[in-house]
Write a structure and sequence with these properties.
three-stranded mixed sheet, mainly alpha, 14 helices, 371 residues
């Protein structure tokens, strides 16, 4: 998903984000040198809890959601059958061959909810060929695992959304069940892919904060809250820059969240991008220029950082300087599509400030996806 926020593009890689949030990550060394349990192993009562989350989001989602009212049925037996099927599967039923469960098919179900319909489309595309029906062709193990990861994400987001829609509405701040809150968290992440609105970000932030309040070692919830707070800050800044009179972003609060994330996960791959957005108060050009000059002092030949510095100069009206810096970056990395596109912008005397675009990725790397 790409969210256009004012003059920058913030890339929230939500599929990867969701995997990182509910995946049991490989254990990292901690001062006490205690390894985390693997996803399938029960916690050992003989060990002290490691200084990291005692639950993972994945473990919270393993149980079958409590039964409640139908979220989608009302019109079709096919919808009722599919909903019952998908809510009746535990994540423990999903595994690489030969343990994978045959997943239910939504064929014949036309949900009235646009939100559910979008998730069904995702589920069909990711799961139908290989997991709902018998495979139409023989797949290598690598191909099968890649399809499995895509399907598992689609299954979990669909199931989490159906679970929260089937339960009685309750304010997030009053929820005490971490499993229910995990459903909300994953469902809001899924919703964010197609409905990038302040309300969705606020719900994601509220769910993450409530989970962290109930269990301060839930590293994944702390990270979700930090990411949501950064996105919220950028959205508020953009609204005010465009003449709105809403609340100002609280960058001090964002910094506190990032410090907490760093305590739990000092080697998190997204800390740098999140800190940049917070430190520059949502990519304010003057602050971006100062930050980029400091970064280039440590790595003078970094084309990506040169592009960001050129963007800041361009926004500040220093167009000749922006052209000089971008030219140097392009010389070092002539095949970069973003550099080439922005070079065409700076050469155009009629180009506007907003024509020069940069992107900041807010997500996780592929090495962080579900294992």
């Amino acid at each position: 998903m790409k969210a256009r926020l004012g003059l920058i593009a913030v890339f929230a890689v939500l599929g990867a984000i969701a995997y990182a949030l509910f995946a049991e990550k490989p254990a990292r060394e901690r001062p006490a040198q205690v390894s985390a349990e693997t996803p399938s192993a029960p916690p050992s009562p003989a060990r002290n809890a490691p200084p990291r989350e005692i639950h993972s989001i994945r473990r919270l989602l393993v149980r079958k959601p409590p039964s409640g009212k139908s979220a989608i049925a009302r019109t079709s037996p096919a919808c009722r059958a599919f909903e019952a099927g998908i809510l009746g599967i535990s994540l423990d039923d999903l595994d690489y061959p030969p343990k994978v469960a045959r997943l239910p098919s939504p064929r014949g179900c036309r949900p009235k909810s646009a939100r559910v319909a979008k998730l069904f489309d995702l589920y069909n595309k990711a799961c139908a060929e290989t997991f709902v029906a018998l495979p139409t062709k023989k797949l290598s193990r690598d191909e099968w695992q890649a399809k499995f990861r895509d399907c598992e994400l689609a299954f979990i987001t669909a199931r989490a959304t159906l679970a929260i829609l089937s339960r009685e509405t309750k304010p997030i701040a009053e929820m005490n069940d971490l499993g229910d809150l995990a459903d909300v968290l994953v469902a809001e992440i899924a919703e964010l892919q197609t409905s990038f609105t302040p309300a969705v970000v606020a719900n994601l932030l509220a769910a993450a904060d409530r989970m962290a309040e109930l269990d301060g070692r839930l590293e994944s919830a702390v990270k979700a809250g930090a990411m949501a707070s950064v996105l919220e800050g950028v959205m508020k800044k953009t609204a005010r820059d465009q003449g709105g009179d809403g609340a100002a972003p609280d960058w001090d609060d964002v910094e506190k969240r990032l410090r907490r994330l760093e305590e739990l996960s000092p080697d998190d791959p997204d800390l740098d991008s999140l800190r940049r957005l917070a430190k520059t108060e949502g990519m304010t050009p003057e602050l971006v220029r100062e930050d980029s000059l400091a970064r280039l002092g440590l790595a003078p030949a970094n084309p990506r950082e040169q592009e960001i510095l050129a963007w800041a100069d361009w926004r500040l009206g220093r167009r000749d300087e922006a052209m000089r810096i971008l030219s140097e970056a392009l010389r070092r990395n002539p095949g970069d599509a973003s550099l080439r596109a922005n070079w065409e912008v700076v050469k155009d005397p009629a180009a506007k400030a907003e024509d020069f675009k940069i992107s900041i990725q807010v997500g996780v790397r592929l090495s962080e996806i579900l294992r």
